Amino acid sequence: MSKHHKKHAHIVEKPSKRALFRDYLVLLCDLRFSRYLTVQMLPILYVLLVIGGAGVIGQFVWDAFAQSLLRGITFLVAAPVAVLIWASACRAITEFLLAVFRMSEDVNKLAGIRPTVDKLDQFISGPSWMSRIMGSVQAASQQQKSPRATPAIHPEKPQ
Q: What is the reported pTM?
């Protein structure tokens, strides 16, 4: 291995376009929905929505010029603001979708701890949960104590 390869051995190579397309098709055909395709496509979806919206706004400007010069100039002046508003709305929707998918993943992870939470609930529920805790603490402290050869603090008086 050359010095250049040793220096950058930790860098992971990007998958080929063919591999990415194959993974896309596998995800598209996954009928169990074990992984979300939408999360990986959100950046592409965002770009397509912004470009599409800008195209529609451009078409409105074109049509306005076809109707009258004054209307066309008005639409032309308003078009950049409309594109910014459209891009901002698309960004907000994309971020919202991403947050929903991330929360879904977190909820799935939390669902895995459900049996532990149920056991804790059974342990604590009922009127005597404190006595059960104290009983566990006392039993643990009794196990730690060992018989001592030293005299007790208050030895009993012989009769």
A: 0.57
